[in-house]
Write a structure and sequence with these properties.
2 domains; 6 helices; globular; about 260 residues; six-stranded mixed beta sheet; alpha/beta; Nucleotidyltransferase, domain 5
Length: about 260
């Protein structure tokens, strides 16, 4: 079995795969609070045990991380408590199923690489725009040559909401969800509508510009992923697919390649 760990700025998102690539279970843990490698190790063992698995069943561990300060502790926890030295995905790792076609690949976050690898697995050799709704909202552009060509970064849902609340005297923190009506009649409705429909409009506008200006009218598949991607289930005319597990799928693909090597 494979344990895949995505270490993000807000959460650690993880999944345990069986030998056929099926995700047996998923779990999340806050990454905002610094903890020791022992605390991470105890947590990982307890999560496995509560889901009726044991650490000795794990054959490999793959990590993508955009939080360098946490990476050492998590690696040490895997070695000490799971008896496996993890493989860390980087922009220059051998075994990528995509090419990072930018002047400085080292600048690209490993989370964006893993997500793009998952998208390439789903739609190989096709133009793609992958929107990851996480702490930041990232847009990853891939062409039909399996090349990662760049993208855009915008504030995420929670970041935008917290900025509104902290910079104003009367705007509260709200639950992030799609409002019932486009025109809100309460302050909460107003904020939820602005966040949701602002994100939908941004996705449409960026997809339109990328399709016509970058790909010269060629079709582009639009894929949504990330913790907030499930909000957009009703936007069936916009997204080809909504796949919250895309980054885990990319880490699985990476593992398959390095295992074969």
């Amino acid at each position: 079995m494979l344990l895949a760990l995505d270490v993000g700025n807000t959460q650690i998102f993880a999944g345990l795969f069986d030998k056929e690539g099926k995700i047996l279970f998923r779990f999340r843990k806050s990454s905002k609070n610094k903890v020791t490698s022992d605390e991470y190790g105890v947590f990982l063992r307890s999560v496995l045990r509560e889901n009726h698995y044991d650490f000795f069943q794990i054959e490999a561990i793959v990590i993508s991380s955009v939080v360098p300060d946490l990476l050492y502790s998590i690696e040490a926890a895997c070695v000490k408590y799971l008896n496996k030295r993890p493989v860390v995905l980087t922009p220059v790792s051998p075994g990528l199923n995509i090419k990072i076609n930018v002047p400085n690949p080292q600048e690209v976050g490993s989370d964006r690489i893993a997500t793009s690898m998952g998208a390439e697995f789903l739609f190989p050799k096709e133009n793609k725009l992958i929107i990851d709704y996480g702490t930041a909202t990232t847009f990853d552009v891939m062409n039909n040559k399996s090349e990662w060509c760049g993208g855009l970064i915008a504030p995420g849902f929670r970041t935008s909401m917290e900025a509104l609340s902290s910079a104003t005297a009367k705007l509260p923190l709200v639950e992030i969800k799609k409002p019932q009506n486009i025109v809100g009649i309460t302050t909460v409705d107003n904020i939820q509508g602005g966040l949701y429909y602002g994100a939908v409009g941004m996705a449409r506008e960026i997809l339109n510009k990328i399709t016509h200006e970058y790909f010269q009218g060629q079709p582009v598949r639009l894929i949504a992923t990330g913790g907030f991607s499930s909000l957009f289930k009703a936007e069936q005319d916009l997204f080809e697919i909504i796949e919250p597990d895309l980054i885990l799928m990319g880490l699985w693909q990476f593992y398959l390649t390095i295992r074969e090597d």
